[in-house]
């Protein structure tokens, strides 16, 4: 049982924040994590920047480009996070594309995550069938939860399959889109949230993509266990820097 | 040894479908349907009819007499440059537009670098009356103005890719993002033998008409179906895949793939992926690609926009890894010289991509009775400005 499992047992809706490591400044990674925790955020997705983030909209693309320009690398991120567990106790998840992990060496990457105290990974372009066949045993050996995405287009049958392979939570992508902040959810989202809720999955669901404010957070967590905010948070970092974190988190709940 | 895709979508260790879950329903639908659809008699009939009446196939297999004399071997040119829209790209877009229609799609997206694939896609969309959106890097839009105008005249919307390095790889990212955002009515016509399975295999099959025709035509001209060598340039690898396809299992046929060395393989400005690349994931498939030690995809360079791609299709990575194909790298200067030479020797102005394939004769020794078939993948009209600037014409 890792920190993610324990957190999911808490009797509350979880607020999770995504940010791109190395943005706005290279050395902001650790201060951002500490401030998010200190302002009551439940879980953090640390984005490992990639040159070609296929599933991301302009905000995360730009933060990734900037982070890479700032000098962020996989090695650098691991160095920055080396002592993170001395100050941070909430679940930490690394979210990144598969190619940089492959080049680092998938096993070496998992081992390093375990050593630092990373609890899970979200790898949007590592499909569930490849994971199950080639990497599941490895992730389990290092105690890492791997989190999969589902979308409004995902069939019930496939959602059940993903549920069976998942260990932790299911990342429920709110709409058929790349990442990016939206201000409201429509009927399509509501129906989808209800459909998934009725499946009674073994893993709780956390909604992501398009959560930007209190309203979307509340709408998303009516049925789901929690929600993840990414682009809207990065926009805040962009305009107000890390001093904007407290106000941002308070505005959500 | 198999050089064909297996049921899981791999060529040896290369290929697969490394896609976000958002793309799964579309890619899975295509995977389940593509072979079935391509096998339907009505599909075959429509495809072949359009290739004949609209594209102008079969394209001639032309014996290049003066060039053969100069290099002391028998050189045949497979004239894909004579196709409608001026390159092999249309073979694939005709196939994919018919596929899209069978799948009930009403909106077409594509990526383009030089604009050849964009033009070929805009053309078939006009032919079928379907909405067409072509993503093109902002930098390529500026340097390929005539093709941008062609696409617009054909009714397509050209959307600039503003992210990353603003060239072909970023246009491909934008097209993929568009597909994520429009999962129901849209088909993505990929322009080369790249992308997640089943794209590399589907594109290869549509382009394989090139090698099918070579066999028949060579039999007529030389009394044998198999040449000693087939030669093609490689960007993502679609004209090469089509030219090699029916010879892959004919071990007596030598396969030569020609990459762009840019200003020199190790100059830092090159697109010679087989030499400079490492196994990784680009645009949804596992293949050789140019990247940093940290796994960030790097920007290639070639004077020819169509070869300016940081990866090669997974089939070609497999042909390289197994040694089935010999890979050669040709610099800008060698290609430009060979392009001009073809003009003077044979009265054919080739695309600069194609000129790379033509340039191998300068440094490759063939026997006098060897039969070497080169894919003349496209004509040089689109490259006139580059030729003019380069040679000060
Ligand atoms: C004439 C021509 N040849 C070759 C290529 C390279 O593409 P591929 O490797 O897919 O054949 C292009 C691409 O634009 C082209 O226009």
UniProtKB/TrEMBL annotation, chain A:
Top EC class, one word: lyase
Catalytic activity: (1S,2R)-1-C-(indol-3-yl)glycerol 3-phosphate + L-serine = D-glyceraldehyde 3-phosphate + L-tryptophan + H2O
Record carries keyword Translocase: no
A GO term from the CC aspect: cytosol
CDD domains in UniProt: Tryptophan_synthase_alpha
Gene3D superfamilies, sorted: Aldolase class I
Pathway involvement of the protein, from the record: Amino-acid biosynthesis; L-tryptophan biosynthesis; L-tryptophan from chorismate: step 5/5
Keywords, alphabetical: Amino-acid biosynthesis, Aromatic amino acid biosynthesis, Lyase, Tryptophan biosynthesis
Active site: 45 (proton acceptor), 56 (proton acceptor)
Family annotation (InterPro entries): Aldolase_TIM, RibuloseP-bd_barrel, Trp_synthase_alpha_AS, Trp_synthase_suA
EC number of the protein: 4.2.1.20
GO molecular function: tryptophan synthase activity
Protein family: Belongs to the TrpA family.
Function: The alpha subunit is responsible for the aldol cleavage of indoleglycerol phosphate to indole and glyceraldehyde 3-phosphate.
Assembly information from the UniProt record: Tetramer of two alpha and two beta chains.
Designated name of the protein: Tryptophan synthase alpha chain
Organism: Zhouia amylolytica
Gene behind this protein: trpA
TrEMBL record, chain B:
This protein's pathway: Amino-acid biosynthesis; L-tryptophan biosynthesis; L-tryptophan from chorismate: step 5/5
Gene name tied to this protein: trpB
Subunit structure: Tetramer of two alpha and two beta chains.
GO MF, one example: tryptophan synthase activity
Lineage: Bacteria, Pseudomonadati, Bacteroidota, Flavobacteriia, Flavobacteriales
Catalytic function, reaction form: (1S,2R)-1-C-(indol-3-yl)glycerol 3-phosphate + L-serine = D-glyceraldehyde 3-phosphate + L-tryptophan + H2O
Organism: Zhouia amylolytica
Superkingdom classification of source: Bacteria
Obligatory cofactor(s): pyridoxal 5'-phosphate
UniProt-recorded name of the protein: Tryptophan synthase beta chain
């Amino acid at each position: 049982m890792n920190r993610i499992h324990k957190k999911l047992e808490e009797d509350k809706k979880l607020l999770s924040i995504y940010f791109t490591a190395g943005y706005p400044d290279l050395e902001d990674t650790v201060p951002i994590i500490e401030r998010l925790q200190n302002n009551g955020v439940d879980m953090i997705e640390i984005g490992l920047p990639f040159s070609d983030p296929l599933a991301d909209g302009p905000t995360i693309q730009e933060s990734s480009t900037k982070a890479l320009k700032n000098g962020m690398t996989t090695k650098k991120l691991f160095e920055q996070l080396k002592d993170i567990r001395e100050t941070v106790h909430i679940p930490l998840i690394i979210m990144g594309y598969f190619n940089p992990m492959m080049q680092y060496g998938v096993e070496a990457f998992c081992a390093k995550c375990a050593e630092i105290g990373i609890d899970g990974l979200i790898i949007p372009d590592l499909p569930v069938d490849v994971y199950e066949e080639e990497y599941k045993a490895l992730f389990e050996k290092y105690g890492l939860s791997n989190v999969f995405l589902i979308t409004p287009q995902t069939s019930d049958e496939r959602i059940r399959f993903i549920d069976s392979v998942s260990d932790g939570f299911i990342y429920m992508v709110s709409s058929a889109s790349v990442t990016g902040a939206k201000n409201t959810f429509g009927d399509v989202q509501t129906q989808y949230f209800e459909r998934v809720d009725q499946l009674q999955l073994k893993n709780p669901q956390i909604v992501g993509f398009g959560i930007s404010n209190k309203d979307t957070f509340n709408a998303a967590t009516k049925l789901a266990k929690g929600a993840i905010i990414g682009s809207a948070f990065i926009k805040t970092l962009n305009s107000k820097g890390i001093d904007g974190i407290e106000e941002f988190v308070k505005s959500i709940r | 040894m198999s050089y064909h895709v297996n049921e899981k979508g791999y060529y040896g260790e290369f290929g697969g479908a490394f896609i976000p879950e958002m793309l799964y329903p579309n890619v899975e639908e295509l995977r389940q349907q593509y072979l079935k659809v391509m096998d339907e008699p009505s599909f075959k009939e429509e495809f072949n009819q359009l290739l004949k009446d609209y594209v102008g196939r079969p394209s001639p297999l032309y014996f290049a007499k003066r060039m053969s004399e100069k290099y002391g071997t028998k050189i045949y040119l497979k004239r894909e440059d004579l196709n409608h829209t001026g390159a092999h790209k249309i073979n694939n877009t005709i196939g994919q537009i018919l596929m899209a229609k069978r799948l009930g799609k009403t909106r077409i997206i594509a990526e383009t670098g030089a604009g050849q694939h964009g033009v070929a896609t805009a053309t078939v969309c006009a032919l079928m009356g379907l909405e067409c959106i072509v993503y093109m890097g902002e930098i390529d839009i500026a340097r390929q103005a005539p093709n941008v105008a062609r696409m617009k005249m054909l009714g397509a919307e050209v959307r600039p890719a503003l992210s990353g390095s603003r060239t072909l790889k970023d246009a491909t990212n934008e097209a993929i993002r568009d597909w994520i955002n429009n999962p129901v009515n849209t088909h993505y016509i990929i322009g080369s033998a790249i992308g997640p399975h089943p794209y590399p295999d589907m594109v290869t099959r549509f382009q394989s008409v090139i090698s099918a025709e070579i066999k028949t035509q060579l039999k007529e001209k030389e009394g044998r179906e198999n040449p000693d060598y087939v030669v093609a340039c490689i960007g993502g690898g679609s004209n090469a895949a089509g030219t090699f396809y029916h010879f892959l299992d004919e071990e007596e046929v030598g396969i030569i793939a020609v990459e762009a060395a840019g200003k020199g393989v190790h100059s830092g400005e090159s697109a010679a992926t087989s030499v400079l690349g490492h196994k990784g994931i680009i645009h949804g498939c596992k293949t050789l690609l140019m990247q940093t030690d940290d796994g960030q995809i790097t920007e290639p360079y070639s004077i020819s926009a169509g070869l300016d791609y940081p990866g090669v299709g997974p089939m070609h990575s497999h042909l390289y890894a197994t040694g089935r194909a010999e890979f050669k790298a040709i610099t800008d200067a060698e290609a430009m010289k060979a392009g001009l030479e073809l003009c003077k020797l044979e009265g054919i102005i080739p695309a600069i991509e194609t000129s790379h394939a033509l340039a191998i004769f300068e440094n490759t020794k063939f026997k006098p009775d060897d039969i070497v078939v080169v894919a003349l993948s496209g004509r040089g009209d689109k490259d006139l400005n580059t030729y003019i600037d380069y040679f000060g014409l």
